[in-house]
Structure formats: structure tokens, C-alpha cells
Write a structure and sequence with these properties.
With 392 residues, the chain is α/β, with parallel strands linked by helices. The protein is built from 15 helices and 7 strands. The longest helix has 24 residues. Keywords: Glycoprotein, Signal.
Length: 392
């Protein structure tokens, strides 16, 4: 009588496919709803600006078609994309409305406010003047956004107890830094010297929101700026294959992220009952880069949807744009498409959920290291894959 194969033996031939499925976690809508956030407050740059840039300075790009072309009735929303941003997906996951820009006083801010402005950095203007860092448009920084936040707090919550109750149950997201390095037109070695100042600025801003009552915070990292579509102008005809990036530039930004993670650890030890998550957009973007074709993106980082040549600014008259942004990673020179943000959110939001420990809101904020978190998150979908084969 032939010996029956063991269950393990049956699964072994399927292991490579199971591991492949583990890299493609299913979307988990409103995962952050478990956290019970009452509001969302965001600080940052164009990666999360939902319209402040249109008000603060004379730059109409994100207020013109084709920006917003994939949203509702195809009207520009002030976002630097054809669709919604990562911060929008975070809000949706938390069961909250999209975060309205603070400078739009005519909009509702009862569920939070977005203070992010495109083109700004973490360093103050005085620090940028010291280093000779110049921005093309806005000259403010995250310090200006925190001043807006202080003003907002006084207006919205004149009663201190009400303010602390609201902020204690809200989610605060702070990020940026890429513009600081991009504006520092020096050698790679010289750019390294400003990293401690950039990290210290982010740390100081986080401490400000903690002093105002924030208890759940996400410190966002930066993504692979060396993979900008604009860096690949000579490769425009090579539309398939692996993502090719400026390794020197990416290594600098990767070091910034490592310092952000160390800073998060320092803050957790200083404020053990505050939950602080590291917003790991780097690994989320890398996952998308590694699997972009399988995820339904046809064009790698050599092509962008809006504008063909580097000097063309999307949103300006006569600048060409694609009709199918869903197929692209990059919408313009420096910003992702709405589809790309949606994919990045599928990875980043579960990591944020894990680090904030929403199932245990009264627990200490101290968590395991980032590498352990990422390994755990990559494996969580394996039982889902196994159950699929049991069912079939």
C-alpha cells in the first residue's frame, strides 16, 4: 500500500508561491478604526499637502488640471497627484474624513487639520539661511506649521481640558526632510553634515505636539528621492525592467531614516506612555518598486504621467499628460500617482497600526525594534495564504 504524503510534504511544492503571496497583503480597510482616533493632525510637505500651498503662496500647479484628474468630478484638490495621498488613506483607515488644509478657513476642521505645505522643510528659515538652503517657493518650515497649530489650538479649544481630551485621542503625523537635503546644493559629504540638524528639528516639533497633549504620533521617514523620474531622463525609452535609482542620493536619505528611527526610540524612552510609530514609507515604496508590474503598474520610474521633459511643470498650459495614471508610479517629476499611494498605504498602515498598539491603548509606548516589526508584518499574511489552499 502506497504511503500517504504528509501535509507538510504536500505544501512544500507550494512554498515559493506561498512566500510570494506573503509579499502581497490584502487591503484591510479601516484597520486604524480600532484605534478610536477622534481627529487627525498632519504636518509635512507636498507628500501630504492637501491644499495649503495654493493659499500660502502663488503657485497654481496643484490647483490646475491634470492634478486631481482621478478624483470624483476630476477637479484639482490642491494635492500634488492625480488622486489621493498616503495621508488620505490613513484618514480613511481611521474612519475619519480627509484632512482639510488649515489655511482654508471655510472648510471643516472639527475632525482635524492639515498644516502641511508643499516645498517646505524641517529646518527653520534661520537655519536654512545659515546653511545657504534655498527653496523655490515657500520660505516657511515645520516651525511655521507648529505656530499655526498653536494658534489653531487657542481658537478651537480655549478650554485646556477640552484640548487635551481631543489631542489625547487624536492621531498626529509629522514628516518631511527631503526638501532640506534637496535645497542644499553641496557635495554628498557636505549634505551629510546637516542630518543632525534636520533630525533635531523633527524631534523638537514632535515634543511640541506632545506638550499640547498628543499621545499617538507617527514620525514619517522619507522615500527614495534618488528614484525620482527626473533622475532618469536618459532612460525614457526603457519602460520595463527593474527600477534604477541614484544610489548615492538614496544612501543619504536612507541614513536620514535610520536617524529618525533612533530618534523615535529616544523619544519613547523619554515619554514611555506616548505611542510613537515610525512611518516606514521607504520600505513601503521599495515593496512597490520590487513588485510594480505584478501590482498593475505598467511603467517603472523612467516614465511619469505628467510632463515629459525635466523643465516642464505639470499643471502649466500645454504640458502633456497621460490618460491612464493608474498605470504609472510617478505622476510628475517628484510625486506619486494616486494608485501608487494606495499601494504604499497597504504596507505602511498595518505597520503604523502595529507600532501604535491600538489594541492596548493603555500599554507602554516602548516597542520592539523596527526590523522585528517589519519581519512580523511581512509574515502576517502567510496564514491567509495557507487558508486559501485549505479552502480550495
Amino acid at each position: 500500500m502506497a504511503k500517504m504524503p504528509t501535509p507538510t510534504a504536500c505544501l512544500l511544492p507550494l512554498l515559493p508561491f506561498l512566500l510570494l503571496l506573503a509579499n502581497f497583503p490584502p487591503a484591510r480597510p479601516q484597520l486604524l478604526r480600532e484605534c478610536g482616533f477622534s481627529a487627525l493632525y498632519n504636518f509635512g510637505d507636498s507628500m501630504s499637502d492637501t491644499g495649503n500651498a495654493l493659499v500660502q503662496f502663488d503657485f497654481a500647479g496643484s490647483g490646475q488640471h491634470p492634478y486631481g484628474m482621478s478624483v470624483g468630478d476630476e477637479k484639482p484638490t490642491g494635492r500634488f497627484s492625480d488622486g489621493y495621498l498616503l495621508i488620505d488613506h490613513i484618514a480613511e483607515s481611521a474612519g475619519l474624513p480627509h484632512c482639510n488644509p488649515y489655511l482654508r478657513k471655510d472648510l471643516d476642521h472639527s475632525k482635524g487639520a492639515n498644516f502641511a505645505v508643499a516645498g517646505v522643510g524641517l529646518l527653520s528659515k534661520a537655519q536654512r539661511d545659515k546653511f545657504g538652503i534655498h527653496f523655490k517657493y515657500s520660505q516657511s518650515g515645520l516651525d511655521q506649521q507648529l505656530q499655526w497649530f498653536v494658534n489653531f489650538s487657542k481658537e478651537a479649544f480655549p478650554d485646556e481640558s477640552a484640548r487635551k481630551a481631543n489631542y489625547g485621542s487624536a492621531l498626529f503625523v509629522l514628516g518631511g526632510g527631503g526638501n532640506d537635503y534637496g535645497g542644499y546644493k553641496k557635495t554628498p559629504e557636505e549634505r551629510m553634515t546637516i542630518i543632525p540638524y534636520v533630525i533635531a528639528a523633527l524631534k523638537d516639533r514632535i515634543k511640541t505636539v506632545i506638550r499640547h497633549g498628543a499621545r499617538r504620533i507617527v514620525a514619517m521617514g522619507v522615500y527614495q528621492g534618488g528614484c525620482f523620474s527626473g533622475f532618469n531622463e536618459t532612460w525614457l525609452k526603457h519602460d520595463q525592467g527593474p527600477i534604477v535609482c541614484d544610489k548615492e542620493w538614496n544612501s543619504h536619505l536612507d541614513l536620514h531614516n535610520k536617524e529618525v528611527q533612533l530618534m523615535v526610540g529616544d523619544l519613547q524612552r523619554e515619554f514611555p506612555h506616548i505611542h510613537i510609530a515610525y512611518g516606514d514609507v521607504w520600505d513601503g515604496v521599495q515593496w512597490m518598486f520590487d513588485h510594480y508590474h505584478s501590482l498593475g503598474l505598467k511603467h517603472n520610474s523612467y516614465r511619469r504621467c505628467c510632463g515629459i521633459k525635466d523643465h516642464e511643470e505639470c499643471g502649466q498650459p500645454d504640458v502633456p499628460y497621460c490618460k491612464d495614471p493608474w498605470n504609472y508610479i510617478w505622476f510628475d517629476n517628484f510625486h506619486f500617482t494616486g494608485h501608487a499611494y494606495q499601494l504604499i498605504a497597504r504596507k505602511v498602515i498595518p505597520w503604523i497600526h502595529h507600532d501604535l498598539d491600538c489594541a492596548n491603548p493603555n500599554s507602554t509606548g516602548l516597542k520592539s525594534d523596527a526590523a522585528g516589526r517589519i519581519r512580523q508584518q511581512q509574515l502576517w499574511s502567510l496564514p491567509f495564504a495557507l487558508s486559501f489552499f485549505v479552502l480550495v
